[in-house]
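Hi W.,

Here's what went into the run:
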Amino acid sequence: MNIDVLISHAWVFLLATFVGLLVIRRVSPLLHTPLMSLTNAISAIAVVGSIVVAGRQESTLSTVLGTAAVAASMINIVGGYLITYRMLSMFKKDKRGK
Amino acid sequence: MGAESWIQIVYVLSAVCFILALHWLSSVPTARRGVLTGVLGMALAVGGTLLNPGLVSYKWIAVAFVIGSVIGVPMAMMPMTAVPQRTALSHAFGALAAALVGTAEYFLRAGTAHMDRITMGALAIEVILGFLTFTASLMAFGKLQEILPQRPITYRGQNFVNLGILGAAVALGGYLVVHSGSTSLFLLMGGLSLAFGILLIIPIGGADMPTVISLLNSYAGLSAAAMGFVLDNKLLIIAGSLDGSSGLILSIIMCKAMNRSFSNVLFGAFGQVAATASAAEQKSHRSASAEEAASLLVNASSVMVVPGYGMAAAQAQHKVRELYDLLTEKGVKMRFAIHPVAGRMPGHMNVLLAEADIPYDSLLELEEANSELPQTDVALVIGANDVTNPAARHDKGSPIYGMPIIDTDKARTVMVIKRSMNPGFAGVDNELYYLDRTLMLFGDAKSFVGELVKEAEIQSGG
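Here's what came out:
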C-alpha cells in the first residue's frame, strides 16, 4: 500500500466515523440494546475478508484460519440480525390506545 | 467492465444499506425496516465477495457458512435476560474473525513484496485490537454468565502490569512495521494482546459492564476497519467505523450516566473504594408487608417503577407486567423510569420490559421521569440501588457523587423491594432507605411482586 492509498482510506474512515456518530446519536435510548446487536451484526462485515482468505487457499494455515473466521462472522451475521429483529418485534405501543 | 468493478458497485450499495439501516433504527416504528435493510446490505456484501475471481474453492466457505448458521440461530433464540452475555460473546466472535484474518494475511505476506510498512502497521492494529477484544469479551461473558466472580479483583501494581503488557504489544507492532519478517515476534504480539484482554476485565465489576461492553463493541468495529486498510477494501472500513462510532457513543453515554471518565472505568475498579464508609452508623428504616404496600399501590393515582439489575437477576419482569396490567385496569397511571446504566448493558431494561409485553411508551428516560416524580404518589424501586441514591446529589464524599440519579425521594411514598439491607454493587449505603417516606419491602423481587399482585387483586376485587 502506498501513502496515497492510505490517505484515501483515511478519508473514508474519517467520513464514515462522522456519519456513524451523527446517525447513531439520534437513536433513542429505548433501542440501545438492539442498536448494539445490529452494529455487531454489521461489523461481521469481516466476513468479506474472511471469505477471500478462506477461498483463495494460498496455504493450509490461511485456509484454516480463514474458514474459522468465516464461521465466526457467520455466527454474528445470522445471530445478530435474528436477535435484533426478535427484540424489535417485542416493542409494542399501548394496545389500550391511551 | 470487469468483475472487480461489479464487486465495487455492489459494495457501494451495501455501504448505503448499512448507513440507512442505522438511520432507520433511530425510532421504533422504522426500526424493523432498518434491520431488514441491514440484512440486504450484508447479503450484497457476501454476494459481491463470492464473485471475487481470486477464489479457487467454495468448499470451506460453504462448510463455515453452515457451522456459523448452526451456532448463530440458537444464539439468537436466547432469552432476553441473557442478552448481555450473548452480546459479549458475539463481540468475541467478531473480534476473533478480524484477528484470524489478520494472522492469516501476515503469514501469507511476511517476507514478500505484498508486505510494506503501512500494511504491516494496519495489520498490527487489526491483530492487537482483535485478540484483546476476543479475550476481553470472553471474560465479560464469563462474568455476566456468572461463571467468573462478578466483583472486581484488584492487586497491587495491576494497572502498571496491564499497561506494561499493552505497551509491549504495541512496541512489538512498531518493531514489526520495520522488520515484518520476525514471525516469532508477531506471535508474541498476538499472545500479549490475548493476555491484556484477560487482565483488562479482571478489575471490572458488574456495575461497569454497560460501559465495558460498549467499549468492546467499538474495538471489534475498529479492528474490522483496520482489516479494511490491510485488504484495501473500503466497505470494511465503512462498516467497521460505523460499529466503532456506535460503540464509542454508547460508552460516552454510559460514562456520563455514571459521571465517570473512561480511564476511571477501566482502571478505577469501582466497588472496592467505599466498603469502609458504610459500616459505621446504625440508622433506622421502616419496612412494610405486601398487604400494606399493595393497598398504597391500589389507592395511588400514579406509580413510577424504577427497575434495575435485580429485576433482571430475579426474572421479575413478567410479574411486574401482571402488576402493570392490574393497576392500569384500576386507572392507576403506572410508568417506568429507566436509568441509562440500569442493568448490565445499554438498553437492557427496555428490552426486558418489552419482552414482558409492557408498552414502550410507558418507559421514561431519566430527565422525563425526574420531571414527573414530584407529582408521583408511589415510586417503586425493584432491584435498583445506586441510581436512586440521593447522596449522588449532595454528598461530595460519596463515590457516586455527581452521578445523575432518578429522584425517587421526591415521590410522596417510596417503596424499595430488596433482599436485605446490604449495600449494593458499589458498596455504597443508600440513604434513600432511611427516609421517613420510604418503606422497605424485604424479599426476592419476583416473589414479592407476585405477592403484591395477589394482594392488589384481593383489595381491588373486593
